[in-house]
């Protein structure tokens, strides 16, 4: 499978181009992991020049409250209490190395060792292994660049949320490392796909990109974050306590 390379100056344009490329992809027939479902699939490499100032594509099956919840899950680990249910959470897998990465970037901005290794061999043997594999950070011209590798990435239901949450993780790491600006974002998805049940939604998204502006401003997200974040944190604590009581 040849690599589909997309280069854009703005994040939402890159995501839109990736989804359009996926919509035009060939169909792969047959069983895919545990799903009896055909899919469209490409090998995606997407480069975005800068993600410091972004518009957020709303080509996702959720609203702002759920997006805030997902960012908290990735950045703060508010769903880590569920790791025993699923075998892992992304945050639980990489969180022990966040301080290492921040300190590396502080001590040596030219380091090539600022990598969050998300997947491991134990998690790889699970029935539903992690899709996200690693996140690598570099600094150039005083800006924090982010490179992400997914072994598998849902191009309809997950990609927009995945990317936004990982950029918010980059913002946190940059802030803690004393780096004032985000630079480029590179998204490498070895299998960027859409299952047949989602083709209609994918086609609808792609049509809407041509018909209207499907983005919201980052400031709109910040307003939602102010409105919902504390509530979602409290809800996560309640669920954690309830699960602990159930387990004992």
From TrEMBL:
Please verify whether the record's keywords include Methyltransferase: yes
A Pfam family: Thymidylat_synt
Cross-referenced InterPro entries, in alphabetical order?
A: Thymidate_synth/dCMP_Mease, Thymidate_synth/dCMP_Mease_dom, Thymidate_synth/dCMP_Mease_sf
Q: Which GO terms describe its biological process?
A: dTMP biosynthetic process; methylation
What Gene3D superfamilies does this protein's entry cite? Thymidylate synthase/dCMP hydroxymethylase domain
One CC-aspect GO term: cytosol
Provide this UniProt record's keywords sorted from A to Z. Answer: Methyltransferase, Transferase
- The record places domain Thymidylate synthase/dCMP hydroxymethylase at 96-204
Q: What is this protein called?
A: Thymidylate synthase/dCMP hydroxymethylase domain-containing protein
Organism the protein comes from: Acetobacterium wieringae
